[in-house]
């Protein structure tokens, strides 16, 4: 795919329809949407009083936390490889 070409999907996340555009393959975009939807349902089930805006922010905080933990582990593994 050329650098300027974009893929577009229409998907539903937590009951709302979204159009997601990106240079990644559509399977990747669908997977991202599915993970976000799943995480929002998981957090929403534990916090039923949250409105969708607060739920979205909590989901972003949780997913960023997970990302930073993975990034830290990745960097540790990279450092171990460089030192071996």
TrEMBL record:
It is found in: Cytoplasm. It comes from Listeria kieliensis. Homodimer. Interacts with FtsZ. PANTHER family: CELL DIVISION PROTEIN ZAPA. InterPro entries: Bac_CellDiv_Activator, Cell_div_ZapA-like, Cell_div_ZapA-like_sf. SUPFAM superfamilies: Cell division protein ZapA-like. Gene3D superfamilies: 6.10.250.790. This is Cell division protein ZapA.
């Amino acid at each position: 795919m050329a650098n300027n070409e974009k893929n577009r999907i229409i998907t539903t996340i937590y009951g709302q329809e979204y159009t997601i555009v990106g240079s990644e393959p559509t399977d990747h975009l669908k997977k991202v949407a599915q993970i976000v939807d799943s995480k929002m349902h998981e957090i929403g089930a534990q916090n039923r009083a949250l409105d969708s805006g607060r739920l979205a922010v909590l989901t972003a905080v949780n997913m960023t936390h997970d990302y930073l933990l993975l990034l830290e582990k990745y960097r540790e593994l990279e450092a171990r490889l460089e030192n071996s």
